[in-house]
Design goal:
This protein is an alpha+beta fold. It folds into two domains: 5-69, no CATH class; 73-166, no CATH class. It contains four helices and seven strands; from the N terminus they run αββαββαββαβ. The strands form two sheets. It has a four-stranded antiparallel β-sheet with strand order 4-7-5-6, covered by helices on one side. A three-stranded antiparallel β-sheet has the order 2-1-3, covered by helices on one side. Helix 1 crosses helix 3.
């Protein structure tokens, strides 16, 4: 995680990505950006009971954890795309989608988190990590039919969307 937790940008999303990378389903943010997650958090997150000190920004409070549960996502398959996009891009619309999509670390996890925090249940990756999602993607992702051009890394292919459904 980058920098001091008190000045960290997007601490909830960054903590979610860190937890997902390690395979953890529960994480917590405390006091404006401090991140905690573990394999046993599902057993211990409520150890001290509910506490009302969490702020409305979702980033916890002093000695108060805002606890999050990460939902699963499954692949719907590989589908063709064109310049008239089947799913609208999230690139440039979410700060979690940093740098060039081709060299982005953890592109599937980052695209999933960006989609879910925008309330989208269907998201796609194309050509090594380019991210797309929208409110209507569930109706449009297959408008050009199936494709065989997705690579085996789950990050799509040239003009081919690897489409996922998030359990939101």
């Amino acid at each position: 995680m980058d920098g001091s937790y008190g000045s960290r940008q997007n601490p909830i999303a960054k903590c979610a990505v860190a937890a997902m990378r390690k395979g953890y389903k529960i994480f917590a943010v405390q006091h404006g950006g401090w991140c905690a997650a573990s394999a046993t958090a599902y057993k211990t997150f409520d150890k001290y009971g509910k506490y009302k000190a969490c702020q409305s920004d979702g980033e916890g409070g002093p000695w108060a954890n805002q606890v999050y549960v990460i939902k699963d996502f499954e692949t719907l398959g590989c589908y063709r795309d064109t310049g008239n996009r089947a799913i609208q891009p999230l690139e440039g619309k979410d700060s979690l989608l940093d740098g060039s999509h081709g060299s982005r670390k953890y592109p599937i996890v980052k695209c999933a988190v960006a989609a879910m925090r925008n309330g989208y249940s269907v998201f796609a990756l194309q050509n090594g990590g380019w991210c797309a999602a929208s409110a209507i993607a569930v109706k449009t992702y297959d408008k050009y039919g199936k494709s065989g051009s997705c690579r085996f890394d789950g990050e799509g292919g040239p003009w081919a969307n690897q489409v996922y459904l998030a359990d939101c």
